[in-house]
Amino acid sequence: MATMSVDFSSKLESLVNNAVKKVQDNPIKKVFFVLGNESADLDSIVGSISYAYLSTQFCPLNTVYLPIIQIPRFDLSLRPECNFIFQKCEISTASLIFLDEISDHLYIISKSYSLSLVLLDHNKLIGIWNQFADKVDTILDHHQDEGLYLNIKERYIEGVGSATSLVVLKFKDKWENNLNDNKQIDKDTQNWDKIIANLLLSAILVDTVLLDFSQGRTTQKDQDAVDFLLDILHPSDPKTFIKDYYNEIQNAKFNISHLSNFDLLQKDYKEYNLEWNIKNETKICVMGISSVVWILKDWILREDGVEKFMETVGNYIQEKNLDLEIIMLAFDHKGDLGFKREMVIYSKKGPFCQKEVLERFEEIIGLNEIKDFRNVNSDREKEESIIKCYEQKNISMSRKKVYPIIKNMFLEA
């Protein structure tokens, strides 16, 4: 496997060493961390790596761009589609930087260099990054606008299918000019242009479900980004090429049945603190949303029944100290069934324990309760909790659309 032409991990080590030794002639003055979101899905990982790589090609010599994958290195094993893409694109994961490898160095880097942050696929800092709110320089995102960092250098929050499309379009003109000006460039450079184009293409195809406009997850900007990447790749049959590529990624992505229950729920997980008002007192509800690419009936079958499955979810809620867990399941069935979504709601407290609030949510999202998966305890109140399994009719409702709906319902409850 080839090593990425930009070894970000080595650059980080060099930065830290120079900072510790206080090297006077160190040419590096500015450091940009490119942060994907905390779920570290394909869109976030690919977008942040590609943004850093392309920025490196066009940035001043005194500036370094480092992508930070917002999970521990070990957790990459939970993302088979990412490992597949890295292998296909000949990118060594050893050249990448993960959250657990940067956290101990944040203080010395922030004190030794001019530090800036690029937020990719999210627009609100969390965790250890909250201390650097004044360092946010650029945002490229397609989620609900949280209304933060309004006076930064670049702020592009648009409802495109994939945040990676915004990366492509940001660098398109410079990249295109570079290709036109260097038609006789060496084969190694040409190869890396194609590798990065393949890398970028993977995330856009997955997030737009193969550029399917009918599902409401694709825009013309996503199509424009793909068209540009295909111009670089020059496949003989573009339609067949992207279809086969998408299917390869999906086959890797759905190879997860061997994962433990905790890993399934943690693989693509986001956590939120939601405010709601009860008796003129503001309460905080800690909500987790887990995206799982599997079929609910197969998961329940593996657990030997719905009772064991509900126990699994309950244990996860207890370990994460959640008040509300929402599992969004999705699977791309081959043949006539196509792409399907399901949802599980387990609420220990909060507005979702109120019948009228839950019914309104069911109506907005298009949820039909699956009677066959009804837990025997779900029809009676037990510690004011509810547990329900649904078929989701409105398949356009992805997590990025569902979260703001839930947030508003909490505020209105």
From TrEMBL:
Cofactor(s) needed by this chain: Mn(2+)
GO molecular function terms attached to this record: exopolyphosphatase activity; metal ion binding
Keyword field contains Metal-binding: yes
Coiled-coil blocks: none
Domain (DHHA2): residue spans on this chain: 246-410
Keyword tags: Hydrolase, Manganese, Metal-binding
GO cellular component, one term: cytoplasm
Membrane-spanning parts: none
InterPro entries hit by this protein: DDH_dom, DHH_sf, DHHA2, DHHA2_dom_sf
PANTHER family, A to Z: BNIP - RELATED (PTHR12112), EG:152A3.5 PROTEIN (FBGN0003116_PN PROTEIN) (PTHR12112:SF39)
Protein name per its UniProtKB record: 22668_t:CDS:1
Native species: Cetraspora pellucida
Lineage, broadest ranks: Eukaryota, Fungi, Fungi incertae sedis, Mucoromycota, Glomeromycotina
